[in-house]
Amino acid sequence: MLLFQAKRGIAKRPFQLPVFIAATGIEKMRQAYIKKENSKRSKQKQRGCTQPKMGKMDIDYQDLHGAFFKYQTKPNLTSHGDLYYEGKEFEVKLREMKPGMLSRKLKEALGMPDGAPPPWLKSMQVCIQPIIVFLVYITNNAFIISQLTPICLFIFSCMVLHPLILV
After folding, report:
1. Where do the PSP proline-rich domain residues begin and end (predicted)?
2. Most-buried pick from 37, 51, 61, 70 (CB within 10 A)?
3. Vertex 107: Cα angle to 106 and 113 (nearest 5)
4. Does one domain contain both 70 and 113?
5. Which of 11-15, 33-37, 73-77, 161-165 reaches the highest mean pLDDT?
6. Residue 143 pLDDT > 50
7. 28, 60, 75: which is the final residue of a domain?
8. What is the pLDDT of residue 140?
9. Separation CA 147–CA 159 (nearest Å)
10. What percent of the chain has pLDDT over 70?
11. Is 149 within 8 Å of 127 (Cβ atoms)?
């Protein structure tokens, strides 16, 4: 198995310059240079290969210094010890939102005042938490099943025995 094999079924996006490099205007100069090169005849192109002329694209060095030393942003990298696998770059990254944190929009939609607990907290205290239901029968937490109320035991048995019922 190859680690970096071609990804099947995924359309690769064209390369985009980072924002801090695109701000220098190098892309416009490069397109103008390519347009000028395409208008040349083949004899001129051959002469350019044998006797190249350097310095065709004049970029202000202050702009380049600003782009690479002042305004450069750090790219998203994997942390130390993370293993790369196919499709890792397409996973959802939860940097600004964390599980359990409610956004202001959601609180307004639920009609929750500031500092109030979420409406499902009471049912989670009485019954088993929804995410743990799938883990209970796999792990050694079998003692939790005996502590369930009858309605929670019914829901638990439906989810474990017939997981497609609640989809």
Report:
1. 94-140
2. 37
3. 175
4. no
5. 33-37
6. no
7. 75
8. 45
9. 17
10. 65
11. yes
CB atoms within 10 A of CB 143: 8
**Pair 116, 157 in one domain:** yes
Confidence at 147, pLDDT banded by 50, 70, 90: low
For residue 94, tell me if it sits in a domain: no
In a domain, 119, yes or no: yes
Token pair for residue 64? 């380049």
**Full domain range(s) for residue 129:** 104-161
The pLDDT tens digits for 10-20 are 677 788 888 88
pLDDT at residue 110 is higher than 50 = yes
Note whether residue 30 is domain-resident.
Answer: yes
Contact 131, 138 (CB under 8 A): no
Nearest CA to 18 out of 79, 70, 67 is that of 67
Burial of 20 (0-12, 13-18, 19+ CB in 10 A): middle
Give the number of domains in the chain.
Answer: 2
55 against 156, higher pLDDT = 55
Q: Is residue 42 part of a domain?
A: yes
Q: How far is CA 4 from CA 25, 79, 85, 141, in A?
A: 33, 18, 8, 40
